[in-house]
Design goal:
This protein is mainly α. The protein contains 6 helices and no strands. Helix 2 (36-60) packs antiparallel against helix 3, helix 2 (36-60) runs parallel beside helix 5 (117-133) and helix 3 (65-91) runs antiparallel to helix 5.
Length: 149
């Protein structure tokens, strides 16, 4: 029997299905505040997607510049989404007390102690990669990339 090798096409659909299944089971209709645990998990997922797209962009760009441009633009948008999730995490109610941090605490990025700092550690590690691969102009532009034809 021939040996088979696993490819990205084998696993990515399962990750997508798991997210859809999670949403269907755990996010009811109607108003609901996202928990910090949920925001942390979503942030972790986006950072993982960012890493995957970064790897594809780095490998593809020298061979197919137009495709590489689109992959880099998608990578930038994922970073922007992860950055917003990080900010939402710091603006969400704290477990136990239900206290919502004030804007000054969020701007100061005050440490809240473990395990809550895992999202900040992950965010800062990814931010280092973003600073190496992206310019500030790219991050703040309404359009994230040159499109070659």
């Amino acid at each position: 029997m021939p040996a088979t090798t696993a490819t990205a096409q084998d696993f990515v659909p399962y990750a997508t299905a798991a997210i859809d299944f999670h949403r269907a089971l755990n996010v009811p209709t109607g108003p609901l505040v996202a928990s910090r645990a949920e925001l942390d998990c979503l942030h972790e997922h986006l950072v993982s997607l960012h890493g995957l797209l970064d790897a594809h962009a780095q490998r593809t760009s020298p061979l197919l510049p137009a495709e590489g441009d689109h992959l880099r633009a998608a990578r930038t948008r994922l970073w922007q989404a992860a950055d917003h999730l990080h900010a939402a995490y710091h603006a969400s109610p704290r477990p136990g007390s239900g206290e919502v941090p004030g804007p000054e605490a969020c701007r100061a990025r005050l440490p809240e102690g473990a395990p809550e700092l895992s999202i900040c550690r992950r965010h800062q590690e990814t931010a280092q990669l973003v600073r190496r691969r992206t310019t500030p102009a790219d991050l703040h532009a309404p359009f994230t990339g040159l499109v070659r034809r």
